[in-house]
């Protein structure tokens, strides 16, 4: 009996410890107060911080805690409350009791702030997407976008940009991405008129993604070239823009600009965005191969990317050797991977580079070789391989890929002696490009520095303020007397 009594006396402290741990609803209330403070103070950084804190709680969200939060923020029975509550599934009574017990007093708000209302839309939409209820998510996102069209506040821009992203994501997951293209264009026009630069960034990337999803590269380039340009506000959106720009430039055969955009997007992307960096590097590898470059082995050995880069590593090896037969085998072996990455058309373009690389290796190895042997070494499977080899060699000589002469009468290639590359301007050009890259990175780092507002202004006392005003009046009087003297 004494042991039972002792056990009963020890159980209440454990319950009190569990009750003191902050719940999800408690964190959501703190985020709501942070949003409210940012809305009244007109500080966008507080809204951004609130969204980052929400992403930390994303995996812990439940329907019961969300419904309790909606009752806390919104007016029960209002149109917004009833609409958002209809999207949430009904939980069992046990969960509801636990959440309501920790909810505390209601927020005495009769007219909630637009920021809090938009945040409730965003919270419910994220929950529905995580629960894979895409039909309800589409309806919720459409309602939130309709509400956003009536709100013109700079403190809503951060939440609005995330709502735009999840709005497009809902329709992309259901395969209905083309349905919202006109609405995205209208939202981009509204954001431009309201000078919502963060919204313009997000919507421009969503439109580019929409066009590229259906291989409408010409329309994407027309939109990108005519869209207003300004300094990037979000690093994530800027990385996406560079990635889409690199894909457009690649399709348009502008490989140099495409390589720069793709590599910059991969460098600027966060370390947590592994999938995005993998896609950027895949396209960058193909573009470098199309430019005639061979990527370093360390590119394929990056941490967490070895398995994803295996097809491209074998493809690079085939291009480096210049073996056309090996190139065909690799393309057939990993055709499903290349089709899912949408790089099939680019790999077809690499066939000419494989032939040119093999021809360059032949010209370096032999001072003179017949066209028949060239056709055999290149493994040309055409009906007339010698004629094809002759046309390929002549084009390579004209383009400057190989330094040789073609003897049509005897049917052979005569290679010239290789010169010293350090006697040319190639080292100077490479050194100049590295210096320009370092300077560009330094300038971007300086521009990215952020300082708190009015940090240089110290709080002055009443006496100092009077002294400063008196000095300003005396200075203004002195300036006025000098102006009279001039006349």
UniProtKB/TrEMBL annotation:
Q: Specify whether S-adenosyl-L-methionine is a keyword of the entry.
A: no
What is the protein's quaternary organization? Answer: The 26S proteasome is composed of a core protease, known as the 20S proteasome, capped at one or both ends by the 19S regulatory complex (RC). The RC is composed of at least 18 different subunits in two subcomplexes, the base and the lid, which form the portions proximal and distal to the 20S proteolytic core, respectively.
Q: What is the protein's given name? A: Probable 26S proteasome non-ATPase regulatory subunit 3
Please list the GO biological process terms of this entry. regulation of protein catabolic process; ubiquitin-dependent protein catabolic process
What family does this belong to? Belongs to the proteasome subunit S3 family.
Q: Which domain of life is it from?
A: Eukaryota
Q: Which organism is it from?
A: Anisodus tanguticus
This protein's GO CC annotations: proteasome regulatory particle, lid subcomplex
What's a Gene Ontology MF term here? enzyme regulator activity
- Quote the biased-composition stretches of kind Low complexity, using this chain's numbering: 11-22
Q: What SMART domains does this protein's entry cite?
A: PAM (SM00753), PINT (SM00088)
Q: What InterPro entries has UniProt attached to this entry? A: CSN3, PCI_dom, PSMD3_C, TPR_PSMD3_N, WH_DNA-bd_sf
